[in-house]
Amino acid sequence: MGKEMLLQLRGIIKDFPGTRALKEVNLQVAKGEVHAVIGENGAGKSTLMNIIAGVFPQTAGTIEFEGKEVHFFSPLDAQKLGIGIVHQEISLCPQISVAENIYMGRLPKTKAGMVDYKKMHRECEELFKNFSAQISPKAKVMDLSIAEQQIVEIVRSLSLDCKLIILDEPTSSLTEVETRDLFKVVNHLREQGISVLYISHRLSEVIEICDRVSVYRDGEYVDTQNVCDINTDKMVSMMVGRTLESIYPAKSKHIAEEELLKVSGFSRQGKFEDISFSLRRGEILGFSGLIGAGRSEVARAICGIDPKESGVVEIKGKKVNIRDYKDAISKGLAYITEDRKGDGLFIDYNIKQNISAAALRKVKKGKLLDDRKETKLAEDYVKKIKIKVSSLKQLCSSLSGGNQQKVLFAKWLAVEPEILIIDEPTRGIDVGVRLEIYKILRELCDSGKGVIVISSDLPEVIGLCDRVIIMREGVVSGVVSENEINEEAIMRAASH
Predict the structure, then answer these.
(1) Domain span at 73
(2) What share of the chain is helix, strand, coil (3-state, %, to 5)?
(3) By CB neighbour count within 10 A (0-12 exposed, 13-18 middle, 19+ buried), where does 319 fall?
(4) 357 and 213 part of one domain
(5) Mean pLDDT of 151-166
(6) Does residue 248 lie in a domain region?
(7) Sign of the dihedral defined by the CA atoms of residues 230, 236, 241, 247, in that order
(8) Do residue 163 and residue 196 come from a single domain?
């Protein structure tokens, strides 16, 4: 690269009881660069970042920072050298002000020993001058958006004179507009000569915002490439150890002409207008478009979750009146939400309870639950979908994002729907779990079901779907058939 290195890790090993999480891995981060760290869940990314941030020490190997070998025994050690981390889960105190969060543990004092709020607010305003977000130092953190809270975390690191900031899945909870704002912040950090380690599952973001990318697989270092010399296909291949062609299952060659679902003239003021389409038996139908195009709203209205003002739904050639979601389920429809933690799962209940929740009719004995039937149902789907669990009594809150998504799949597959509508099926999960989900969806179609996939992941839409409907500002702006599915056709319809 020709740039001076800020951070260099060589031969890093990390052992936990019974397992080696990192196997002699390397990493070099230059001054003033945005450096992506990618890999599947279990690749060792989090372990590596925790070592850099001083959360725990390495078992073996060396760390150099600004050309000198360093040893971290606590996060404070890393912080003193100028290393900050913004975790995926925000670590601010919501009940106190922005300024108090930024200066927590080092509040400026007056000569009388009182907190000097004027000085604190003045210094805080100075820190925020470089950011476009209008955030008041006096605002309560609980009143800020997730994106604004992330900026507060970044500003807190800058107030400590950080030279390296680690961003862990920074856009996982952000809208597209908020993501754009975050990118402006990252670019500003780069211009100031501050290095950024950017951990993300969203490879398109890596291409857009990062200078270099380091790939890890199964606790081992794979390679580092300049972003300008690589594409998402190559990154995926490096992460999973196989070619992109093997990621998506083969598409159906003979999709039936029978229409499982037909939607005509669906409208709701301010949300969507005159939406009409059909889903054939054995087909994966994609819904693409920019965030806010109305895709999720249409799906929720079809299933009776949200209201519609006009429109007709036909299932297998017969008009149906879907009054609510329970009614939709009884007619063979199931909807898997994009918000698995908020709307999809009973996150503080166990795996068995979640899998059986929508299929209680199958596990009842009279009016009571039959524990044997419920256990058998859960065991069958854990095995079928390959959910990694220690016990059926394990709480869903303790599972990885990928396994939570699999439990959500199991919950709705257990009702045996004819038509499955799934919103953002692989958001925030690693490539390995994606492969398994893609296989499940294709197997559903091969068994004669129909699947609608709503996705903002363009490679996913192109690789998985048999046909694609593109929405823009609440209307259908294009339909792309299988032989014509490509990035240019979809983006043209989404933006014009």
Answers:
(1) 5-242
(2) 35, 25, 35
(3) exposed
(4) no
(5) 88
(6) no
(7) negative
(8) yes
How many domains is the chain built from? 2
**Boundary of a domain, candidates 183, 217, 242:** 242
- Tracing tokens 């993300």 back to the chain, one arrives at 200
Banded pLDDT at 132 (limits 50, 70, 90)? low
Domain identity same for 487 and 359: yes
Q: State the Cα–Cα distance between residues 340 and 355, nearest whole angstrom.
A: 13
- pLDDT one-digit tens code per residue, 86-124: 887 778 899 999 999 999 888 989 999 999 999 999 999
State residue 254 phi and psi, 5-degree precision.
Answer: -130, 85
CB atoms within 10 A of CB 7: 22
**pLDDT band at residue 321 under the 50/70/90 scheme:** very high
| 237 & 264 share domain | no
Rounded Cα distance between 156 and 75, Å, is: 15
Shared domain check, 238 and 205: yes
Of the CA atoms within 13 Å of residue 327, those in its CB half-sphere come to 14
Spatial separation of the C-alpha atoms in residues 311 and 294, rounded to whole Å: 15
Does the structure show a pLDDT above 70 at 496?
no
Cα separation, 92 vs 152, whole angstroms: 9
Q: Are residues 299 and 445 in the same domain?
A: yes
Q: Is the pTM of this model over 0.85?
A: no
Query: What is the residue-averaged pLDDT of the chain?
Result: 90
For 489, residues 6+ apart whose C-beta sits below 8 A from its C-beta are 478, 480
